[in-house]
Amino acid sequence: MATERRHIEIAGLVQGVGFRPFVYRQAEHFQLKGWVANHSGGLHIEVQGNSREIETFIDKLSSDKPPYSRIIRIESHPVPLQAEYGFRILPSVWDSSCSTLVLPDLAPCDDCLKELSDPKNRRYGYPFISCTLCGPRYSIIDKLPYDRANTSMQPFPLCGKCLGEYRDPLNRRFHSEPNACLECGPQLRLCSSSGDTVADSEQALYRALDAIAKGKIVALKGVGGFQLLADAVNGNALAELRRRKRRPHKPFALLYDELKNVCRDCCVSDLEARLLSARERPIVLLEAKDESCTSIHHLVAPNLTNLGVMLPASPLHYLLARHYGTPLVATSGNLAEEPICTDNDEAFERLGKIADCFLVHSRRILRPLDDSVLRVVNNRPLMLRRARGYAPLPITLPQHAEDRKLGRDTLLALGADLKNTVALSHSGWAYPSQHIGDLGSANSLSHFNRTIGDLTNLQRCQPDKLIHDLHPGYTSYRWALKQKTARIGVQHHVAHLFSCMAEHAHSGPALGICWDGTGYDCSGVVRGGEFLHWDGRSPVTHLASFRTFPLPGGEKAVREPRRSAAGLLYEISGFVALQHQDLKRCFTRRERQNLVTMLKGEINSPQCSSVGRLFDAVSALLGLTTRMSFEGQAAMALEQCARGVSSKDSYPFNLAKKDGRWELDWAPCISALIYDENKSLPQRAAAFHNTLAQMALAVALKHGEKNVFLSGGVFQNKRLTETITALLQAQGFSVHCHSEVPPNDGGIALGQIHYAHCMQAAGQPLGEVPP
Amino acid sequence: LGHGSGGAMTQRLLTDYIQPLFNNTWISQAHDSATLPWNTDRLVFTTDSFVVTPLFFPGGNIGELAVYGTVNDLAMAGAEPKFLSCGLILEEGLPMVTLKRVLQSMAKAAQSTGVMLVTGDTKVVERGKGDGIYINTSGVGQQISQWPIEPGRICRGDVILLSGDIGRHGIAVMASREGLEFESNLTSDCAPLNRAVAELIQAGVEIHCLRDLTRGGLATALVELAESCGKTFSLDESRIPVSEAVEGACEILGLDPLYVANEGRFVAFVPESSSKLATSILRGTVAGSLCEIIGRVGDGDHPQVALKNSLGCDRLLQRLPGEQLPRIC
Ligand SMILES: [Fe+3]
Ligand SMILES: [Mg+2]
Ligand SMILES: [Zn+2]
Ligand SMILES: [Zn+2]
Fold first, then answer.
1. Order of strands, edge to edge, in the sheet holding B292-297?
2. What is the pLDDT of residue A293?
3. Which residues are catalytic (chain A) (predicted)?
């Protein structure tokens, strides 16, 4: 039998997932000699032995690979034989500019959980238990290669027992970088709101639970940052948390100990159960069961029947949730829309007035990662916020981006200003960042800068071009102007369309239905009800839009649906509209007088074509929400109002050509809706949703393009998305929705990249501006 | 239209309206140029044009504005205003009484600020080609501070003083132009600032920089200064005085008082050691009676203006991109 030696290179998600121990065990099994090492480009292996065994060994690398690993490419070639005495794991090699993938933070695996609750195990109750298959990753990695010295585990030298596991190729913790135990690893600590330590380890945990039981608010140092915990059953505690956080209505997320208890309070489909239990451990939006009102306090999600639910994402969360028994509120530890706190001292300072005590530990969190949020729509997961558990995994771009010519440029897309994410494209992959947030604050802006640094450092490349939105008021746009890099501007809704296309690896003709709140397009109109078409070759065309109406007070109208309602009715019938009873009850007499003056004089009353504002206006006209304390409140209320109505009734509308493009006129719908005395409120809300779906269909039929993409914040609405999908599918359209990145502005950065690639492939100019 | 032709009618405008009001040696000479006495080494010179609808608004008119505007620009450079020129562009059909009222308030404003209007010019444009009156004033002043007062002198740790409540001018003008009605009466803050500045300098306050707040409001002025000196400013939102009337009007209009125009407010950058003295002096003046310390210059070395709100969040202020367009998606 021939003896040979082969050099094997594996690219993909192969570091930090237990790949080297897996290779080691396979090599032992096939009695192969040689070595394996982490490499900046992935994993390098050399094996020497029986050539048939080597073949099988290479097959096994793909077929039996550790869960969660992803292989992009395996290449191998023969090399000269060498003197070898066994199989070894060599130190990491870090020399080239190739990239490798960094893993997100993963919830504990079953083996670790078993040990955690086994009184005989030496890690019984140890909140930082992990192994090669689970535990923190992106939140603790400083730089590549993924070695302990390059993580925030660096200050914790392994004790004898842990080192034994780390060195034992047959152990689950072989080369597990976050490996630790009570002896040698990070420790728990309970601190007062001023930062003084009041208890350690187990005692810290018990006293924190005690505080929650007494109605206190506990700041917990979680996986990607601080969370605020409170008893989800205790109304006083929740009212206090809402008061201190100045968050009157925005729903809080719930932490449950196990799935069966979630099922007690909420309706959970199979897919939802799978998502809840997935290693990413996102928050999943679920429909609450009616009887759950008895256990979950209504202040968790005032006036809403959807609950954001998650299962424990770390051993520490397991310990807390299990010991507490009843669900806990777990909301992000930040001020308003700022990034969540990650550092102990920062948390004491910023959250000191909100939390009564702090459950912290000695392992540093190197970057903020919010909890991710998903919802099931059309029987598929729909991402609403992409962060912990998903970042920094890349998204594969459609084939042509791998084209050497196109893939060569490293693009950095800066996204939109609210729900900001950035994305880097590099050799056929797009790396979307975690959710960064509203760039209006100083802290978010520094998070934005650090995240760009993270992406470029981990991928070891600098952007050749920047891509930004066209809105001149965006911080990201101003940031781009200051860089010494060429830049490309992409219109907001074009980016929405291509974002959805990117997810479906689509780079051909497409019809985009892009409905959101605000997008800038140089026309002076606040856009948000747009239909775009791409023929796969030429520039994108603007096919149709909604009839515009004024927003008295501009950005103020975004927070006050009653203003959108006033603008909407004013557009239909002029100033007499302000006498309408539905408006009269929302404003004082003087307010109405001034609104008329503003509308007539066009004072701070920009025109908008936004479906988001149309939702707000209808929500106000139906008396559901006249002012909002959080974004999306009015639309959520309207969606929820229609719950349980299955009627397909809709209101009339007009579709006509105006200035060379189709205009959807909502006026007949609104006129019918406000005087519709025959229908109940829920029926009117449902009919409004149905009308929008009919409008989408009408435009799609006029055009005929079969591939339809739904993008924009409006498509976070399950009822609307599902109604449109069903309606269009019945007419033979293929309808595509978001799944991996959010339909809201969190998906813009990915779309900016895909747009640039598609236009480059089509030979269209990108309107590049030199630095 | 004949009033601007340079003939007898122009002469009548000068002798009947202007000379009696601005009675000084130079204007009485009715010469092409004014020859002025000058005996210091630092001359400060500025110019500004004034366009406002309506010409008369609660708390002021275009005439006062034209004098105070240029006087204030001189004061912001640490100068005592001395002489003004005045260019009038009148729209045909402007009632002579209106002109007279405007000129009267210019004269009164000049007198109260101790500046002399020494030369001028008048042109008349066809009906429909002007909004009644446009005024340009240029002014020269004499530097009275020992050192130049300019953005480049702003230092880390400097305290930022604001002379009074903001936003009154912009809102008062808009309300009277558009016929908006608010709970309480609102008047423009239009006022001269040279006295307040002179008192600060005379008391030995080490002023590093001054800036009057005009179009674009407090936010725009501070962002511009941060950019020219390359430093980080931190402001405390709760310390910025805003009258209830302005607050209420902005609430209805959806405007941010930080971006609304002022005509009699300024910010001063002084070292921490002078801040107490500066505050107490300013509070004793008419223009600075509501003076507050609103923030300070931080350690950062990138131009940034952060406004801390009551929650503790730092919001970054930007220059306005034209009009206020919503960003929220
Ligand atoms: Fe959007
Ligand atoms: Mg000026
Ligand atoms: Zn594990
Ligand atoms: Zn140990």
1. B209-212, B266-270, B159-162, B292-297, B232-236, B304-308, B314-316
2. 57
3. 20, 38
Put simply, whether A335 touches B (Cβ < 8 Å) is yes
Structural domain including B221 reads 151-316
CA nearest neighbour of A169 among A65, A52, A36: A36
Whether A441 and B321 lie within 8 Å, measured CB to CB: no
Q: Indicate whether A684 pLDDT > 60.
A: yes
Statement to judge: residues B58 and B158 lie in one domain = no
CATH top-level class of A102-186: alpha beta
B21-58 tens-digit pLDDT:
887 877 777 677 888 887 777 899 999 999 999 999 99
Give the 3-state DSSP-derived string for A117-183, with helices as H, strands as E and coil as C.
CCCCCCCCCCCCCCECCEECCCCCECCCCCCHHHECCCCCCCCHHHHHHHHCCCCCCCCCCCCCCCC
Q: Write down the mean pLDDT value for chain A.
A: 93
User: Is residue A537 among the annotated active site residues?
Assistant: no
Q: How many angstroms separate the alpha carbon of residue A477 from the centre of ligand 3?
A: 43
Judge whether A520 is closer than 8 Å to chain B, CB to CB. yes
Between B306, B315, B325, which is nearest A526 by CB? B325
The CATH 3.30.420.40 portion of chain A extends over 545-740
Contacts of A652 (CB under 8 A, 6+ apart): A668, A669, A672
Kindly report the CATH number assigned to the domain that includes residue B79.
3.30.1330.10
**A279/A274 Cα distance (integer angstroms):** 10
Domain boundary residue, one of B126, B143, B160: B143
Which one, of B264, B254, B257, lies nearest residue B60 by Cα? B264
For residue B323, the chain A residue with the least C-alpha distance is: A604
ipTM: 0.90
Question: If you classify domain A3-89 with CATH, what class do you get?
Answer: alpha beta
Contact A601 B178 (CB under 8 A): yes
Q: What is the pLDDT of residue A95?
A: 56
Q: Do B324 and A555 touch (CB under 8 A)?
A: yes
CATH of A545-740, one of 3.30.420.40, 3.40.50.2300, 1.20.190.20, 3.30.300.30: 3.30.420.40
The whole-number pLDDT of residue A400 equals: 61
Instruction: Give the model confidence (pLDDT) of A176-210 as tens digits.
Output: 999 999 999 999 999 999 899 999 999 999 999 99
User: A518–B326: do the CB atoms touch at under 8 Å?
Assistant: yes
Q: Which helix (H) or strand (E) holds A528?
A: strand A527-534
B322 part of a folded domain: no
Task: Tell me if chain B has a CB within 8 Å of the CB of A339.
Answer: no
> Any residues with CB less than 8 A from the CB of B122 and at least 6 apart, and which?
B3, B4, B10, B13, B14, B87, B88, B89, B90
Nearest CA in chain A to B317: A440
- pLDDT number for residue A322: 96
Name the residue among B179, B255, B313 with its Cβ closest to that of A338: B313
Residue-wise pLDDT tens digits, A393-411: 988 887 665 565 665 689 9
